[in-house]
Amino acid sequence: MTDALGWLSVLPTRPPATPTDTRTAALAALRELVGRPDAAFHDGQFEAIEALVDGRRRALVLGVEYNTRLLAAIAEHVAPAIGWEPAR
Question: According to the lineage, what is the superkingdom (predicted)?
Fold first, then answer.
C-alpha cells in the first residue's frame, strides 16, 4: 500500500507493539550490530526508533551509508520481532 506521495506503508499484522517490546527488540538489534552486549542507545536514539516503529512516523535520514545500514537492520530485526511485515 502506498500513500499519496508514493511512500510504501508498513502495516502491522497484529496489534501495535508495546513500548517494552520495541525497546527490547531495538536494543537487541543494536547490540548485534555493534557486537557489544553492553551497548546502549545515546539520548534521543530510541525515541526516534519508537516514533518510526510505534508511532508510524517518517524520517528523512542523513548520512546515507551508515543510516541506510541502520534502517535496514531495523527493517530486518526489529520490525519482524514485533510482528510487522513489508507492504505488498
Answer: Bacteria
